[in-house]
Amino acid sequence: MATGIAKKKDIPEQVWMKCPGCRETVFRKLVEERLMICPECGYHHTLTARKRIEQLTDPDSFHERHADLAPTDPLHFKDLQSYTDRLKKYQHATGLKDAALCGTARIEGNEVVLCVMDSGFLMASMGSVVGEKVTRSIEDAIELRLPLVIVCASGGARMMEGVISLMQMARTSAALAKLDSAGGLYIAVLTNPTTAGVMASFASLGDVIIAEPKALIGFTGPRVIKETIRAELPAGFQTSEFLLDHGFLDRVVARGDLRKELAQILSFCAPSAKPKPAPAAKTAPAETKEPAK
Q1: pLDDT 10s digits, 43-64
Q2: What is the average pLDDT value for the chain, to the nearest integer?
Q3: 286 burial type by CB count under 10 A (0-12 exposed, 13-18 middle, 19+ buried)
Q4: Which residues, in sequence order, are CB contacts of 17 under 8 Å at separation 6+?
Q5: Span 94-110, average pLDDT
Q6: Other residues' Cβ atoms within 10 Å of the Cβ of residue 168
Q7: Is the peptide bond before 222 cis (omega within 30 degrees of 0)?
Q8: Dist CA 45 CA 26 (whole Å)
Q9: Fewest beta carbons less than 10 Å away: which of 71, 228, 244, 273?
Q10: What totals of helices (H) and strands (E) does the chain contain, helices first?
Q11: Where does 99-164 show beta strands of DSSP type E?
């Protein structure tokens, strides 16, 4: 018997999406209109690096730096496929050379050095290129005397590069120590997920640490921790809300308010990031005529 209900196969894949937070099927356009936030439960879906930059920065203010950096395969790593082939696959899918974009930008008029990680590229794992881009962004902030904002999203170190990947933890942390000595400001924005080697290095070293709601933040999974310490873990202990309650974070900020929040912090903590108004043009004094005798 015919019914008016459309079968699943008749529904275009790009019209509906299933929310990982509430498991509801929601209208994709509604999610996109809300900055990729579920209208039912407020779950923050992942964003591409370019979309994140578009949301956070003033129009046409982002200027990419160090775009020529590209990964190699120093270990000739191969699992189900070679590392080289895997890189090509993700480069084609994302349009990026690796999992981070960096450059200079303005956030409501405040000039910053900005580095954004893209979880669509190998889960934003940190290899040599990501570590190099983060380090160069820190060095740019020192050289240009600008505040630094890093939007973190990562599954951790990239195993295909072995110890070279792990070395990036030390490199980025040492560079941040130089920024601190130079009196620079570093704001870390933690998104879902921010874990492992990234969390154990530059993601946790911000002067101000902000996280999006319900983000997964931690070093390793709860099962490994539970087996290691042999103790029951509190519910939600790796969420941004739990970490805020226990003093690890300074703010939990919804995506729609993040740009304004960053601008306020920059205005308070780094007023020099605001461009100085151009001095008024000097006008010649008006000529005075001597009175007629």
Answers
A1: 787 889 999 999 999 999 999 9
A2: 85
A3: exposed
A4: 25, 26, 28, 31
A5: 94
A6: 25
A7: no
A8: 13
A9: 228
A10: 9, 10
A11: 100-107, 110-117, 148-154
Contact between residue 221 and residue 244 where contact means Cβ atoms under 8 Å apart: no
Residue 105: exposure state from Cβ atoms within 10 A (0-12, 13-18, ≥19) = buried
At the second CATH level, the architecture of 46-273 is: Alpha-Beta Complex (3.90)
H/E element, 64: strand 63-64
Q: Could you tell me the two tokens for 102? A: 């960096």
Domain boundaries, the chain: 14-45, 46-273
Name the strand (E) or helix (H) holding 93. helix 83-94
For tokens 């979880």, name the residue.
119
Amino acid symbol at 257? D
- The SS3 of residue 242 is helix
Q: Is the dihedral of CA 224, 230, 236, 241 positive or negative?
A: negative
Distance CA 112, CA 265 (A): 12
Task: Identify the top-confidence range among 63-67, 196-200, 228-232.
Answer: 63-67
Cα–Cα distance between 196 and 219 in angstroms, integer?
4
Task: Using only the alpha carbons of the chain, give its radius of gyration.
Answer: 23
Burial annotation 257-281 (CB, 10 A radius, 16+ → b, else e)? ebbebbbebbeeebeebeeeeeeee
**Cα gap 255→292, rounded to integer Å:** 72
Structural tokens at position 22: 């509430």
C-alpha to C-alpha distance for 229 and 218, rounded to whole angstroms: 15
Q: CB atoms < 10 A from the CB of 40, how many?
A: 15
DSSP one-letter code for 78: B
**How many C-beta atoms surround the C-beta of residue 125 within 10 A?**
23
| pLDDT of 87 strictly over 60 | yes
